[in-house]
Amino acid sequence: MTSRIPRDSRLRLVRAQSPRAERRAGAERGTARPLTAPGAVTQQRARRPAPRPPEGTPAPGELARMARQGLADAVTVARWADRSLRPGRSRPGAPDANAGAPDARGGRGTLLAETAERAAAELALTPDQVRADWDTARLAGLIEVHGDSARPGWRLRAWDRDDAAVLRGWVALFDAWSLTHAASRELAPATVAETVEAMPQLLTLLQLSAGPVPVAQLLDLLDQRVTELRTERCEIPYGPQPEPVDPTETPPLATLLDWALRGLAAVGALTYADGQATLTPLGSWAVWVKLEQICVAAQSPAGNIEQSAEDMLRGCARLRPNAARSEYRAWLAARPVGSAVTELLDAARGEDALLRGLAFEALRVVGAPAESEVRAVVDETPLRPYALIWLAEQEGADPEDVHLVLTRDESTWLWVDTAAAVADHGETHLLIRHLESAVQPTVPALLDEVRRIGHPRTVQVLVALAAAHPDPALAKAVRRAAFQVHTGGV
């Protein structure tokens, strides 16, 4: 007998089983899905031994020592800020502890003038040196800027004991080399961007050469790569065009190359003197790591390096988390961080909810360098729940409690968005399990809130859920809710 009143079914929050537990349960039931079944993915990779760095590369401990030495000044400023600017540590008559907050008027992340002068006096440095070391500390993750405040990063806490954290911090600085040594305002932004995009090829040449490379040879390669980039864009002008630009007014590539090599030398990636450039041990190791990531992905079943962000995410959709993260790392290693983050966020804005979730998984691999771009999309409704969770994770929130940063409506929006991804790409039983993960305690409460939030995929999600659920009364209630949303009823 079927009641017209929706059952007040209690929803249970279930914890996902560990992969080992799932395999054990499947073996006991004898229902393990064959690899050839629909939805199954062949992901077994032939395990290869861990790649060995080129001969002569120092051990990780020695590389970490070099990184600590190169970042010593930045660490000093970061620790001074931790000691002196933490709330509650101001001395009588001293500047306000909040003076260490980034100056919104001068650009987020910059120190207030009085704070820089105070640090300079206490550390026997000049204010300009303090600002430069502060910027280096931010780029290396020693200081994390969150909105209008700054605080010590987790890498600073682990600096003396964790070699891996030190090396990751240095690589983050290496990736941001173009920010540490700003280009002259006389250089056109477009030509600067082309140079930055071309530098991975020049760094690869330096790494493979394993020794000094004449600047003339690097200049020839830069010329070739910039020409390729302009050809790939195939820019065809339309409409009336201005007079051709005098070639003498275009900054020569030699000037751009000089700026790039000085920037890389400033972060300790190479030495630049006497018309030659040579990678330092740290620089050689970092470039080798990125090349290795690209080679691993090129040998993988997915091989998404050359794809757009959207196609790459689709290619990773059925990979297991570890395999997907390897693909993300390789894809990111093959392009500048800034453009990669922009492309991922553009993919997240699309209609496919699955790609939205995967884009933020890829942004987790990017980490701190993506923070400003992620923070900028917080006000975009489709991206807001994902962005808030991502930012909370970056700020060190407990993974078990990270969902608490969302309001009830934001949690419901995320539930519907995830349900849309499951309905489009998953299987029936996954949609039913997703129902049990809702924050609402009952089905009627869930349906009421789902109707209210106005997610564009609400009707499709409810129809799919009604078709999948084995309880006739609950399915009927869900179908009624879908009809009400579709007709604009209450």
Features:
about 500 residues; mainly alpha; Arc Repressor Mutant, subunit A; three-stranded antiparallel β-sheet; two-stranded antiparallel sheet; 23 helices; 5 strands; disordered N terminus
**What overall form do the CA principal axes indicate?**
globular
Q: How large, in whole angstroms, is the Cα Rg?
A: 27 Å
Helix content: 55-70%
Instruction: Determine the number of helices (DSSP H or I, runs of at least 4 residues).
Output: 23
Could you give a short account of the major beta sheet? 3 strands, antiparallel
Total number of beta strands: 5
Helix vs. strand class: mainly alpha
Order of helices and strands: HHHHHEEHHHHEHHEEHHHHHHHHHHHH
Portion of residues in beta strands equals under 5%
Q: How many structural domains?
A: 4
Low-confidence residue ranges: 1-19, 22-46, 88-107
Strand order of the largest sheet: 3-5-4
Mean pLDDT: 76
N-to-C CA distance: 27 Å
